[in-house]
Amino acid sequence: MDCNTARLLATFFGRPESELTPEDAAALDAHLATCPKCADLVKFERAFDDRVAQAMLAVPIPAGLKGRLLDGVAAERGAWYRERAYAVLALAACVLLTVGGVIAWQVSTAPVLTREQLVAQADDEIQNPSKRVADVLGSRGIEYAPQRAFDLSQLEVAGTGPLLGREVPVLYFVNGAKNARAKVYVVRKSDFDWTKLPQDGSSVPSVYGHQVAVIRDARRSDVGYVVVFTGPGLELFLEDRSAV
User: Fold this and answer.
1) Which one of 17, 41, 58 terminates a domain?
2) Domain for residue 94, yes or no?
3) Does residue 8 contact residue 41 with C-beta atoms inside 8 Å?
4) Is 131 a residue whose pLDDT tops 50?
5) What is the Cα–Cα distance from 98 to 188, expressed in whole angstroms?
6) Residues 231 and 129 occupy one common structural domain
7) Is 72 inside a domain boundary?
8) For residues 180 and 232, is the Cβ–Cβ distance under 8 A?
9) Residue 197 lies in a domain
10) Is there a contact between 150 and 229 (Cβ–Cβ < 8 Å)?
11) For the chain, what is the HEC assignment?
12) What is the pTM of this model?
């Protein structure tokens, strides 16, 4: 080992607690034993380090220093949390103001309902049931054309409703004279395979009197009018009641 290497190792790794490998430590000790200049330099540097360390340890620690340091850290941390809280509150206030402004704008621009409008719409629904049905089915790309026409004078509601987890067009009929009701689900084969359902309304009534029938579409083979009804027969809800 040469002098430069020995002095470098002695400067950075020459302490007992250093991470010098046993081989390097042995080589360093061997060099210092045969090189007085390096040995004197190492002794001087170690003595200087020891005096500095003793001087540092001799400095008295001010009373309460630990507490003041912890208080300072807590104060800085509290200031940081307060700044974060203020930022969150400011953001929440902005959101509330924005949402409140949107709601206020919607309220100020919402159409005003009048008795005349409501009455006119109700009268129109009674006078034009076929238009109600056409509007509902048209939104699904279906034209109303059952092979056996339903009696639209019994139509109560035309809209959409759930059928085994899917939203499909549904027509609600009420036959007051016979205290009977019917739901007509207008479905495509892409929605449900309805081809196995009875077409004459002769299914066995359930505990609550429900029966099932399907009427095919006159123009499209993939569209069926699935009827779930109560009463003595499907004909109650059809225009042709010759079988009633």
Assistant:
1) 58
2) no
3) no
4) yes
5) 44
6) yes
7) no
8) yes
9) yes
10) no
11) CCHHHHHHHHHHHCCCCCCCCHHHHHHHHHHHHHCHHHHHHHHHHHHHHHHHHHHHHHCCCCCCHHHHHHHHHHHHHHHHHHHHHHHHHHHHHHHHHHHHHHHHHHHHHCCCCCHHHHHHHHHHHHHCHHHHHHHHHHCCCCCCCECCCECHHHEEEEEEEEECCEEEEEEEEEECCCCEEEEEEEEECCCCCCCCCCCCCCCCCCCCCCEEEEEEECCCCCEEEEEEECCCCHHHHECCCCCC
12) 0.54
> Given 18, 41, 58, which residue is the final one in a domain?
58
In a domain, 108, yes or no: no
Number of domains in the chain: 2
Model confidence pLDDT, tens digit, residues 31-75: 878 888 888 777 777 776 666 666 666 666 666 666 776 776 677
The C-alpha atoms of residue 73 and residue 56 are separated, in whole angstroms, by 24
Can you give the pLDDT at residue 46? 73
Residues 224 and 133 in one domain: yes
**Domain, as residue range, for 23:** 3-58
Assess contact for 27 and 33: CB atoms under 8 A: no
Q: Tokens in use for 89?
A: 């509150």
Contacts of 178 (CB under 8 A, 6+ apart): 231, 232, 236
Pair (124, 30) in one structural domain = no
Going by C-alpha positions, the residue among 230, 231, 202, 232 that lies closest to residue 214 is 202
Residues 127 and 50 in one domain: no
